[in-house]
Amino acid sequence: MCGVPQEKEGVCNSCLAEQPHFRVLRAWSVFDGPVREALHKLKYQRAISLGWTLASQMLDFVKVELNWPVDAVVPVPLGRSRLRERGYNQVETIAKPLALGLGLQYFRDGLKRHKETRSQVGLTKSERRENIRDAFVADARVKGKSILVVDDVSTTGATLSAGAEALFLTGAKDVYALTVARALPQHGLESA
Ligand SMILES: [Zn+2]
Prior knowledge:
Helix content is 39%, strand content 19%. By secondary structure, it is α/β, with parallel strands linked by helices. The chain is globular, with a radius of gyration of 15 Å.
């Protein structure tokens, strides 16, 4: 479910212990090499056009390999203070061209943060879950829709699970989660 690569088939121990709220989470790439560099530039160096570049590279993977039955794309939102500081949400620069390329509806404010959370960087898995709990509220437009929720990097999947929970609470029919990259355990919880 969580998309962490494992040796054997089936649901991993972590998902068995606590089932995430999304149906499934997948990433296009591992959080490494040029993808990691591109995401860093997109987030911290205002290289906004890289969002389009990454989305166009991801299209085939999402359309052909995943081929999920989804109606609309929703980006994971930034907190208000972080949005003010950065001036843009880097996730939107990926999610919007992805929605266009897939021919799906795009709900920019499908999820909103209604509490400020501290950065997840450096927190353990259970700390991340606690930090992000109740952080999101979903827009009424998601009702009855199958939603593709998009983020830039996934580590434990706690943020996407909290977003999925809010989407379901508002009546979403189903929630699939996608990130550009997945930080693997060897990257540590410090990386993303
Ligand atoms: Zn899992």
